[in-house]
Fold this protein.
Amino acid sequence: MTHSQSPPGRNDPCPCGSGKKFKQCCLGKKAEAAQGEKQILPIVLAVIAVVIGIVVGVMRDAGSGLVVAISLLLVAGGAYAFMNVPPPDPKGGNPGAINFGN
């Protein structure tokens, strides 16, 4: 698809060439692929943190490696939490207010 073409409508033929309607073929596949990538990211970050911790532990001592690994895991977990914020409330309102069911 080039930039001059508009995206296909739900009832248009699917651009993949299957002959099905777009809504029955490829409509949700990009969202599923993006969700799969988001699920892999924390695993990759954890593996990188552990590997760096092992390298530091071998080069210096085990205590330093453990501290580095735990620190990197905390930083990676915080970064992942801030990257995946929940969607905004569709009703609006004050996000800082406490609602006790009123």
Notes: The chain has a mean pLDDT of 79.
